[in-house]
Specification:
The chain is of the alpha+beta class. The protein has helices at residues 5-27, 61-66, 165-168, 196-199; strands at residues 28-32, 46-51, 77-82, 85-96, 101-105, 108-111, 114-115, 141-146, 151-155, 171-172, 176-186.
């Protein structure tokens, strides 16, 4: 029996809803930058697409072929559950991998006793090596510590204004939600609907997260 137009329309809507729910739950997630901890690379009001599959463990070879992934690497910008409050999502950059020895000396990061090259890092209170170092300030001096197995050391790009592993410790692997891909929308902080077009940061749209 031929389906009615109404039934076909309803089935199409339900199918689209289920697919959207699947994509939202298992593949991609939207994320909005709430703080300045990743400035100037990511700004308050940037809206990101996060790939939730790339770091997901695969059970079989078929799954790996259909849903290709890779291990977490140093330099990845990652969205994760905040260890001190898993109901909140944070975004930071992976600095230390399991087994790495991490130390901060005069704001400069050392990994396994070698200085890390960080073109993405930004400093509000002077570059590494400048000014007097305070041993009680983890932004200037931290460690050395060794990253435990199954955990990561995370830092914000805005080093003088970031609540990260220097303050709350290591990130467990199972708290990782996904890899930040690109900016799909960006709106000036405090922007309003009447000034919508002037408040959109058009130049940032579809920019890759690096």
């Amino acid at each position: 029996m031929k389906k009615s137009a109404v039934r076909e329309y309803v089935e199409a809507l339900l199918t689209a809803f289920v697919l959207a729910l699947f994509v939202r739950t298992f593949v991609f997630q939207a994320f909005k930058i709430p703080t300045g901890s990743m400035e100037p690379n990511l700004l308050i009001g940037d809206h990101l697409i996060v790939n939730k599959m790339i770091f997901a463990p695969s059970v079989s070879g078929v799954e790996r072929a259909l849903l290709p992934g890779r291990p977490i690497e140093r330099g990845d910008v990652v969205v994760f559950k905040y260890p001190e409050n898993p109901e909140r999502d944070f975004i930071k950059r992976v600095i230390g991998l399991p087994g790495d020895r991490i130390e901060v000396k005069q704001k400069r990061v050392f990994v396994n006793d070698r200085p890390l090259q960080e073109p993405y890092a930004h400093f509000l209170d002077g570059p590494p090596g400048s000014g007097e170092t305070r041993s009680d300030d983890p932004r200037q001096a931290y460690g050395p510590v060794t990253v435990p197995e199954g955990q990561y050391f995370m830092m914000g790009d805005n080093r003088d204004n970031s609540q990260d592993s220097r303050f709350w410790g290591f990130l467990p692997r199972h708290y990782v939600k996904g890899h930040a891909l690109f900016i799909y929308f960006s709106f000036t902080e405090g922007g309003s609907l009447p000034g919508f077009f002037s408040d959109v940061r058009w130049s940032r749209l579809l920019g890759r997260v690096r």
